[in-house]
Amino acid sequence: MNPAESAQQRLARSRAQMTQWLEADHARREAFAHSGLGQFSALPWVRSIGNHPLASLAFGALTRWWMKPREKRSSTTRVLALGTGLGLLRRRPLLTVATMTLVGALAWWTQIRKRPPARLK
């Protein structure tokens, strides 16, 4: 605060800062409303669950995590994903193999359908 600043100048500066904060908050709320989690939380049954204090706390934590800016994924994410996949394979080998076979068949089928039909000469 500058001592030469008048009360009206301080008030104007304070109002400008308040306006910036409100605009930033409004932008964050709009971004959340248009995200997948925001649209999910707008469902009526999710709102009724959100009225419960513990569920509201959990939704708030999930929202903060969802809206947090993401950094470039580190190698630890890949290691955790690989560890989870291998753990699932060890616990449920038949389910994992069946799921991977189904995903592979769907990927193969979509690639076959994208190709133009072969012309006979």
Proportion of residues in extended strands: under 5%
Number of strands: 0
Could you estimate the helical fraction of the residues in percent? over 70%
H/E topology pattern: HHHHHH
Q: How far is the N terminus from the C terminus? A: 85 Å
What summary fits the major beta sheet?
Answer: none
What does this structure look like?
The chain has 121 residues and is an all-alpha fold. It has 6 helices and no strands. The longest helix has 27 residues, at 7-33.
Short description:
The chain has six helices and no strands. By secondary structure, it is mainly α. The termini are far apart.
Secondary structure elements and their pairing?
Elements: H1 7-33, H2 36-41, H3 44-50, H4 53-67, H5 75-91, H6 93-114
What are the defining features of this structure?
121 residues; mainly alpha; 6 helices
